[in-house]
Write a structure and sequence with these properties.
Blueprint (H helix, E strand, L loop, with lengths): L1 H21 L111
């Protein structure tokens, strides 16, 4: 019985202390504004090992525009000759064709070809095609 009274007294004391601290007002606290932080930026000086001004023309101004982009004449697409690339492509080639299945996608990898060290055609049946469906 005495143990229960002790535990109950401790619990009531903790509840009273929490109630006393809960009544304190938070109005005295300042609110933190992140925009008031002043950042210090360190200026990094790069040493190239030589004076770059010795290699620039006299009176060089990096902020002056030396090239007038409006003075450049551009070639219109209509003036370009049409190139016939069909002689370099396989028959029926369509660059915009959608692959119908996964097997129709061909991946070219340099590691796919390797030299076995002997002629494998001697050991395969006549008319053998590894890529035939």
């Amino acid at each position: 019985m005495r143990n229960k009274n002790l535990k109950l007294s401790i619990a009531m004391g903790i509840a009273l202390v929490n109630g006393a601290f809960a009544s304190t007002s938070n109005k005295d606290k300042e609110f933190f504004d992140i925009n008031t932080i002043e950042y210090i930026e360190e200026e990094v000086e790069i040493d190239l090992g030589f004076d770059a001004a010795d290699y620039l023309p006299e009176g060089f101004d990096p902020y002056k525009i030396y090239v007038d982009l409006n003075a450049i004449t551009y070639i219109e697409d209509d003036e370009l000759p049409m190139l016939d690339l069909s002689k370099h492509l396989p028959e029926g080639f369509d660059a915009y064709a959608y692959p119908t299945d996964v097997q129709s996608i061909n991946y070219i990898d340099d590691n796919d070809t390797f030299d076995v060290g002997f002629d494998t055609k001697k050991y395969l049946p006549e008319g053998f095609n590894a890529f035939q469906k």
